[in-house]
Amino acid sequence: VKIVDVNGNVLPPGQEGDIGVQVLPNRPFGLFAHYIDNPTKTASTLRGNFYITGDRGYVDEDGYFWFVARADDIILSSGYRIGPFEVESALVEHPAVVEAAVVSSPDPTRGEVVKAFIVLAPDYMSHDQEKLKKEIQEHVKKTTAPYKYPRKV
């Protein structure tokens, strides 16, 4: 398993790319070989010597792999690539948030923005909603990169 770029080249540690499983010269036993009667779809999953899983990630300096998001779940906001999983993880770390889901929302200026749907903990249901929203947004800014916070909650 490697992290590869759009041309199938292996990326160095710390660079985000597509997660690929090396299939050439020897395909791992049990790994998908092709889509039946769909060579175009099959070709879209192969890049150089790699089968592209559809996931994005990076490998750190110690060789550990880190999942970022499904490639088709990425939110593109003002040129930044944002994985919903990371934002959802930051949201549920806040004591007011029991569950969270993050999606892309159209935006005329940024193209897309992060929109969060959250389930509040019972103790927070009576809090001032606007103040709590800003508090949760600030929490995400501090937990992740500031541009990843949900602009719509």
Automatic annotation (TrEMBL):
A GO cellular-component term linked to this record: mitochondrial matrix
GO biological processes: acyl-CoA metabolic process; fatty acid biosynthetic process
Coiled coil feature spans: none
Single annotated GO MF: ATP binding
Domain (AMP-binding enzyme C-terminal): residue spans on this chain: 86-153
SUPFAM superfamilies for the chain: Acetyl-CoA synthetase-like
Record-linked Gene3D superfamilies: 3.30.300.30, N-terminal domain of ligase-like
Keywords on record: ATP-binding, Fatty acid metabolism, Ligase, Lipid metabolism, Nucleotide-binding
Superkingdom assignment: Eukaryota
Homology family: Belongs to the ATP-dependent AMP-binding enzyme family.
Identification of the protein by name: Acyl-CoA synthetase medium-chain family member 3
